[in-house]
Specification:
This protein is an alpha+beta fold. It has a domain of 74 residues: Arc Repressor Mutant, subunit A (Orthogonal Bundle). The protein contains 8 helices and 11 strands. The strands form 3 sheets. Strands 1-6-7-5-8 form a 5-stranded mixed β-sheet, with helices on both faces. Helix 2 runs antiparallel to helix 3. The protein is globular and about 45 Å long.
């Protein structure tokens, strides 16, 4: 099924993530440590740890860093005493935001998230105010030029829910969260490397932003991602190039 092109938006997002790699690694290490403490040190028996491990590898984190984080978590390190919490809100132009955090101090985290939103034209919503606009799913995005037939074959044989190709030829595959690890292993075995992959909150509909609105929304997302307690930010906004 064809849809409007998201490839430039995806590449823009990846570029911004690469620019923040040091901070990204710190957040992934925290996620790995907490996952190892909660479910044990074996990624094959701990789906949460497997997801965090894959996230670390995708961010080019050295394997030694990942193994040290697992050892800390499995050994009950103090920095594993974090809880996961989700905030919902709105940014510019009615675009929805989901802000997933990992914190040892809820009061500090909600204060920082609320301040960031309200200072830049957004607002914090109540639980359930926007989550219905998103779908929790596994997601794989393959670059234009990837064999659509091969992706389709592997996807449908390994439990994918949907395969879509956009106007530029980027291929998106979605699946149930519990199917993500098996599907990723199947893609890896077939030599198909997704440019973007993970278990995400995927927007069910999108809000197109351009010009000043796009720049303001990107600033909100950037500032939220810079907060130490924020792990992931999801939005219904699709922004034109804000550079």
């Amino acid at each position: 099924m064809a849809g409007h092109s998201k490839w430039a938006n995806i590449q823009h997002r990846k570029g911004r993530q690469d620019a923040k790699r040091g901070k990204l690694w710190t957040k992934i290490i925290r996620e790995i440590t907490v996952a190892a403490r909660a479910g044990g040190p074996d990624p094959d028996a701990n789906p949460g740890l497997r997801l965090a491990w894959d996230k670390g590898m995708a961010a080019n984190m050295p394997k030694d860093n990942i193994l040290r984080a697992i050892q800390r978590g499995a050994g009950g390190a103090d920095d594993a005493n974090y809880e996961e919490i989700r905030y919902e809100g709105y940014g510019v132009g009615g675009a929805a935001l989901i802000i997933d955090c990992m914190t040892d101090n809820r009061q500090r985290t909600v204060s920082e998230v609320r301040h960031t939103l309200t200072k830049h034209g957004g607002n914090l919503g109540q639980d359930g105010s926007v989550v219905f606009m998103f779908k929790h799913c596994g997601q794989f995005v393959f670059a234009p030029g990837t064999s659509e037939e091969q992706v389709m074959d592997v996807a449908l044989e390994n439990g994918a829910d949907d395969v879509q190709t956009d106007d530029e030829g980027a291929i998106e595959v979605t699946c149930e969260p519990g199917q993500y690890v098996a599907l990723k292993q199947a893609f890896d075995a077939a030599g198909l490397n997704a440019d973007l992959h993970g278990v995400v909150m995927k927007a069910l509909s999108e809000v197109q932003l351009a010009g000043d609105d796009a720049a303001r929304m990107q600033k909100i997302i950037d500032l939220l991602e810079e907060l130490d307690d924020v792990q992931e930010v999801y939005t219904t906004a699709v922004m034109d190039d804000t550079e």
